[in-house]
Predict the structure of Phosphonate-transporting ATPase.
Amino acid sequence: MSMIEFHDVQKYYEHFHALIDINLEIDKGETVVLIGPSGSGKSTLVRTINGLERIQAGKLIVNNHDLSSPNTNFDILRRDVGMVFQHFYLYANKTVLENIMLAPRIVLKMPEEQNRTEALKLLDMVGLKEKANNMPSQISGGQQQRVAIARSLAMKPRLLLFDEPTSALDPEMIDDVLQVIKRVTSVSDMTSLIVTHEMGFAKEVANRVIFMDAGQIVEDDQKESFFQQPKTERARKFLSKIITH
């Protein structure tokens, strides 16, 4: 059963055609990795899925919500669609634990004791339970990103979007974050869509790989087929440069 459906989707920034004829279905429970050169439309595609970017033509259905309809309630949609950004956007004046508890308290009206218990479980899952009472400024960038992942999971999303979650991190912090994402995608039945430049990680975690270039989907294949024998010259060239460098 599909969680996400793109039908002939077009996205423009004034005269720039950012997404061109996007046709794509992602099933519930899939982990899909989006790769491609910078400026290929990966982040734009992901941001249309929770309405941060609006499409100009075509049809986009996410978790049974028609995002191409003017009647769609994006607040309701976003309760089920979590997003982890390149930057962490933690509240600087709240502790790590309070950052995770905030949305479930306000949006889900979760009882305080249950909220605290579940937030601590999530912190334990991302390996940061001992940092619960720290302020964001007291932990590293990699740790802040792991808190941001826990914060997204606190809303119990059906779909989790990752927009280059390690691109703002120092190299030595990247692996800890990738390991957390791998754990999240492997133990839950959530649908995950991950934009990344980390090819080794993509090989490990993905069910499918989507390769984009110049606003278009160039290839969409199972990870084994894509990495062993890409079908297009453009994808082969991209992978050869990644592997070489």
Q: What stands out?
A: The first strand starts at residue 2 and ends at 13. Residues 171-187 form the longest helix (17 residues). The chain is about 40% helix and 25% strand. The chain has one domain: 2-241.
